[in-house]
Amino acid sequence: MPSYDANAQHEADAGMPDSMREATRLTRAGRLTEATALIQRTLANRSGGPAPARPAERSPRPAEESPRPPAPLRWLRRHQHAPASTQTITVPSRTRPASQPPDATTAPAGRFTTASHSNRAGTRSYKLYVPRDAGSGPKPLIVMLHGCSQHADDFAAGTRMNALAEASGFVVVYPQQSDRANPSRCWNWFKADDQVRDGGEPSIIAGITREVAAAHGVDDRRIYVAGMSAGAAMAVIMGSTHPDLYAGVGVHSGLAYGAASDLPSALRAMKQGGAGGARRASGTPTIVFHGDKDQTVHRRNGEQVLAPWTSGGAQSVPGRRALVTVHEGRVPAGRSYTRYVYRDGDGRPLAEGWSVHGMGHAWSGGDAAGSYTDPTGPDASAEIVRFFGEVAAQRS
Description:
Layout: H1 18-28, H2 32-46, E1 111-119, E2 122-130, E3 139-145, H3 152-159, H4 161-168, E4 171-175, H5 200-215, E5 218-228, H6 230-241, E6 248-252, H7 263-272, E7 286-291, H8 300-306, E8 323-330, E9 336-343, E10 349-356, E11 363-364, E12 373-374, H9 380-395
Parallel strand pairs: 3-4, 3-5, 5-6, 6-7, 7-10, 11-12
Antiparallel strand pairs: 1-2, 2-4, 8-9, 9-10
Helix pairs in contact: 1-2
């Protein structure tokens, strides 16, 4: 993903659809519920994501162009004082033909339960997956935030994150937005009150994270957050407001922290990129996936998420100048992509950006059993987990 040209954010919005102008009018009139519902109807009609289709043979994981640690060990099954060399991650193969019997990569056998968490900001339910053979040592935790109109079960099916958790031994939790908090079940990433550490939805998500971590023996150095679309924008907020809690962030089709502060600015950000929000980023290691044909959240937003690591950029994280390498690749019988890898001078991972060519608003390499997935792209779930494992290895 090339660096974002800040001048582009000042583009005129004369092309904004009439429905969006009406949503802005409703917002200014204080009719927020009506405005939100209208926005989501409009976005659903414009979405570039493919509609759910019949299950198909899964695309193999893309061939790697850069070296990986040899014979990586399983990520979880370590005692707290295990040597640093064991803090890597196994990513299971995805070359199994769909006609073969299910195995651990597609048929998780652990516990998938429902619970809820409440604080003064409200109550949210969540789904929790704990692998069958989790072991007794400290476990990694990944917090997964769904997109608009999705729910926890849908997101789990589309990302196949439970299968990865079963194969590699980490815990995964899916906080679920309430339709009372947002009629389309979007996380309210664009509201100023939901962009702060100790209030709003971030406080609820952080509360769920801490609750699960305490109850399931999670290693507090290996807690991560990832999401799709509105969930990705909220994941960025969580990483920026809670860098002490989350060691890494996964952003699929999302927006930078501070990209919007109300509904009108959210519409502009989704259409053309945010207004300099990346300047407020924390520098938490981040991996970004974005389709370059996304008509719902413009790809410029993915570039803005990466802006803090742009080599020589004014928004670079102080003291962490990034060295970037660029790799081109293609999934066999699937989509091509460009991968940007940002590391510091000592080779530690800072960020990655994956631009998936020809893909719309969909989870790359996802399962058609879930909504907003594109099975022909590189496997975003496996790559996010792999990136988090590399971050853990460097921090140990």
